[in-house]
Design a protein that fits this description.
By secondary structure, this protein is an all-alpha fold. It has three helices and no strands. α2 (21-43) runs antiparallel to α3.
């Protein structure tokens, strides 16, 4: 989890000029996968704050990097 504790938002990660586009995509995909896993666990009865907004922001950042 290279993003954890270093970036508060996907926008912060996108703004990091020390990362290549490929590195940004890799970190965002990892972040997205972690959030999806958390949402699945929450759907199975585990408690915690909603992560759907964070997931939306991550997906939007990936779209912008990929030029979709």
């Amino acid at each position: 989890m290279g993003y954890f504790g270093k970036y508060d938002t996907p926008t912060d990660l996108l703004a990091d000029e020390n990362l290549s586009v490929g590195e940004k995509i890799e970190l965002l995909e990892s972040w997205r996968d972690d959030k999806e896993a958390y949402m699945r666990a929450a759907g199975e009865g585990m408690q915690g704050p909603s992560r759907s907004e964070a997931l939306r922001l991550i997906e939007n950042a990936l779209i912008s990097l990929r030029g979709e």
